[in-house]
């Protein structure tokens, strides 16, 4: 969809799954298997679908469609390919990434060359997440792949954002760029569960203009509220670009209200540059234009965003 023109594009249906490929469990997390990608070398827009379901993580191909094409294309993924739907799918700089149930590697799919590879050199804190009680998912920090690692406790939630540098095996390095600590007020104790998090990082884009973006449900506003937080220097030198401490006295700067669909937390954030390019050039438009897009809040400042044209 393009909020600037009020247009939304219809995509053709996915290929009919084989009998043994049909999932018996499709709940509201189905959206996590899709990702929107831009190829800077060709200027093409693509949608990627990793056919991973909540009740089965094995798949044999990935579906890809280029805007303007009339059908999806299946790309063989090899035998034994697996994904973890709960950790979502992220596309950055023409490459789509997702995680596996074993949580010991990240899969990547180069959209330009149609090549699958695995990234096994992950941060040590991530590889030991099953032992230290942490969880992690993928994100986008300034056009780089990031691993967002979180540990929960009743009083504080600590998140480390690890950013990948390099793209080929042997050149990949990870460094901790940010540490975010969210402290729970004494009158709002919680069990250490991701389902009860009061404040969440935006996804997949979680940093804009060197500020961390978070959102939470506001009982007073009866809506979701978007915040930004300026990191401060980390004197322990554990975080390269600083630390954010979120508490009752330092809740962050309110940016906008976020209109979300009822009972859904699947609103995504992207680097967006306004364009009047008509989506009708790529195919049939959706009608009517989705109501949740019509009522979207004002966007973030556009400084330091990529100069490419973009849709969201």
UniProtKB/TrEMBL annotation:
UniProt superkingdom: Eukaryota
Domain F-box associated beta-propeller type span(s) in chain numbering: 2-239
Protein name per UniProt: F-box associated beta-propeller type 3 domain-containing protein
Organism of this sequence: Aegilops tauschii subsp. strangulata
Lineage: Eukaryota, Viridiplantae, Streptophyta, Embryophyta, Tracheophyta
